[in-house]
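Supplementary notes for students who missed Thursday's class. We covered one full example, reproduced here. Read the sequence, then the structure, then the short commentary at the end.
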Amino acid sequence: MNAVLELLKSHRSIRKFTEQPLPNGLLEKLIAAAQGASSSNHVQAYSIIRISDPCNRAQLKSLSGEQAYIEQAAEFLVFCADMKRNTEAAARTGIEPTMGMTEQLLVATIDTALVAQNLAVAAESEGLGIVYIGGVRNNPGAISELLKLPKHVYPVFGMCIGYADQDPEVKPRLPLATVLKQDYYDNQHDPVLVDQYDSEMERYYQARTGSNKTSNWSQSMAPMFSGKLRPHMREFLIKQGFEMK
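Structure (token representation):
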């Protein structure tokens, strides 16, 4: 494999960071590279908020599930789906913008995810570690107030970036045959393949350094579907102008 493929396959989430700061200008360089991500109709419907104030970091940690690395990492970013800038640009052409469409929510969220993943790869190419923080959606209203987010903007996730103070193993991914289909959707072999994958994940958790976790992939899916996960999100998104019409 070439170096890019090796890098992509070596991704690990890093949750312990050293105190070493990023060199001056490196974050800006990484974000400029991340901006090369694909964007639907070139809307680039995202904003990235760099959180440097220790008080803001502490509040974000509290609002995002008490994840210590939010304060420890050299950099903490909040990625926001942002249709405000685009709405204002459209209005300057003389039209009355139509807002609140479900497609606008999808486009902004997808754009945000694409630029964030570009940034993750760029950071890892520079020897840095990252971890996504979906916990910002635990309290999106309070976080929006803290970060002064206007309507048509919402926090999708955060990202810690810094120099790793741990060396975790790469977590196995689903078998290729479960996610790559030929010509049409055929999942007749998925149950057998997922059973095999569950066994692989059990072995991974048992062998993982410093872990006493006993679980598998299927078991880890249960919390997402055994109750209503973040049921506040729909009401919050509507309040922010993403009405999903």
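Commentary. DSSP finds eleven helices and four strands in the chain. The radius of gyration is 20 Å. If anything here is unclear, bring it to office hours.
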